[in-house]
């Protein structure tokens, strides 16, 4: 069976590493992005140069019509999706809860939570054996922030990732009998651009001493865990989590 993967937020960081590793392992890959077409195109080009197949599709996962269009485009250009990585997410400037307004909470939850629900919904409609699909796998990208809370920095982001953990557990049980596995990875302090969004590009360097392994992680290390959860090697694993956090 042809393996077709959608990676949301696939133009940079963990998403880009996941897309490229998946292509090397035989997946046809959709690299979803919101704004950065150049970065998404670069990922697609790298996959093509390595002999793989990929497309880039612009869509804001927080917008329902965009998500529907994203999946329909994949249907037309790559075929029925068999794997989904809910990686798209945002965080905002480091701030205490007392200084966070409702608009920020809405933005953070829309991108991190609503987007994951909508993409999971569209994937299930195509994967479920009750709907004529052949099954599939979903991996949600959570964060160790869901466990640690990110006090003084991003409690709203941590809370959104806590919701992703609950989605993973509940959805895994809901669709297990339909041939769909749902798992999650919880990255720790990983060298990606997301820290710049929070106003501290060198955050990993500041906090790495608190990590038992004594270093920050690389995007490829998270991608490898994601690909294992998508693979047949994880056929008896659902509703589970892999912390890729150096022991944090």
Description:
A 7-stranded parallel sheet has the order 3-2-1-4-5-6-7, with helices on both faces. Helix 1 (13-24) crosses helix 9 (219-230), helix 3 (64-77) runs parallel beside helix 4 (102-127) and helix 4 packs parallel to helix 6 (155-175). With 248 residues, it is an alpha/beta fold. The protein has helices at 13-24, 37-49, 64-77, 102-127, 145-148, 155-175, 194-197, 203-207, 219-230, and strands at residues 4-7, 28-33, 54-58, 83-86, 136-141, 180-187, 241-244. It has one domain: Rossmann fold (3-Layer(aba) Sandwich), CATH 3.40.50. Strand 1, helix 1 and strand 2 (28-33) form a beta-alpha-beta unit. It contains 9 helices and 7 strands; from the N terminus they run E-H-E-H-E-H-E-H-E-H-H-E-H-H-H-E. It starts with a strand and ends with a strand.
